[in-house]
Amino acid sequence: MELFFSPLACSMAARIALYETEAPVTFVEVDPVTKRTNDGADYREVHALGLVPALRTDDGAVLTENAAILQYVADRFPAAGLAPQDPAGRTSLHQWLSFIGTELHKTTFAPQFDRTASDAVKAYALGKAGPRLDLLDRHLRGRESLLDRFSVADAYLATVLTWTAATPIDLGKWPAVAAYFAHVRKRPSIARAFREERPLYVKELERTSTASP
Predict the structure, then answer these.
(1) CB-based contact 46:62 (threshold 8 Å)
(2) Is the pLDDT at 212 greater than 50, yes or no?
(3) What percent of the chain has pLDDT over 70?
(4) Per-residue pLDDT at 211
C-alpha cells in the first residue's frame, strides 16, 4: 500500500490507523502548494483535486476521502479492532467520523489554514467552534475514547486537535476535550506519527517561506 500524505494534515489520521495495524505501507509526501510528490511527480495524476490523503491499495485501486480510507483500513485489518462490527457501533463510528470531518475539520479548522481566507472568514469559522466543542466536551466527560474503545474516529480526532497549537482555539475552555487529548496523544501510534511528521512540517514551512516573495 501507498499512503499519500502532507505533514500534520488530516492524512495523519490514516498514518495513525496504519501504525495501529502494523501493516506494511509506503508513505509518499505531497507538497500541499505545488501538488508534487517528493520525487517530483504530479500528485494530481493520483487525485485530481490534489488533496490528501489518498491510499493506493495492494491491488492498485486508489481510495480518497479521509473517512472512507480510515474505514477501509479498519475493515482490511479487523484484528486491530479499529471499528465496531455491530450495526449500532458502526453507526456511532459513522456519526463521529462525519462530525469530525464536517463540524471540526472543514467548518472550524480548515479556514484558519486557508491562505486566501480573509480575517472575517477566519473569525466567522472560529465563532462556530464553541458549540461544536461544547458538544464534544459533554460526550468525552469520563471517557478515554469516542466509542467504547480506540477507533479510527479517535485517530481522526487526535489529528484535528493537534491543529489547536496553530490556531486561537484554547482547549482549556473544554476540560474534557483537553484531558482526552492529553491522554490519547500518548498512545504509541499517535506519538510516533506526530514525532515523524512534525519535522517534515517544519521543512514544509521553510520551503514555503523561501518561495514567498
Answers:
(1) yes
(2) no
(3) 98
(4) 52
Based on the fold, state whether residues 181 and 102 are members of the same structural domain.
yes
How much is the pLDDT for 210? 59
The total domain count for the chain is: 2
Q: First-to-last CA distance in the chain?
A: 38
pLDDT interval class at 208 (50, 70, 90): confident
Measured in degrees and rounded to the nearest 5, phi and psi for residue 48 equal -55, -30
Residue with cell 471540526: 104
CATH number of the domain encompassing residue 99: 1.20.1050.10
Mean pLDDT of the chain: 95
So what's the pLDDT on residue 177? 98
Domain that holds residue 152: 87-188
With 0-12 CB in 10 A as exposed, 13-18 as middle and 19+ as buried, what is 69? buried
Provide the whole-model pTM: 0.95
CATH of residue 46: 3.40.30.10
Please tell me the distance from the alpha carbon of residue 148 to that of residue 70, in angstroms, as a whole number.
18
Cell numbers at 23, concatenated: 501493516
Same domain, 167 and 103: yes
| Cell, residue 165 | 497549537
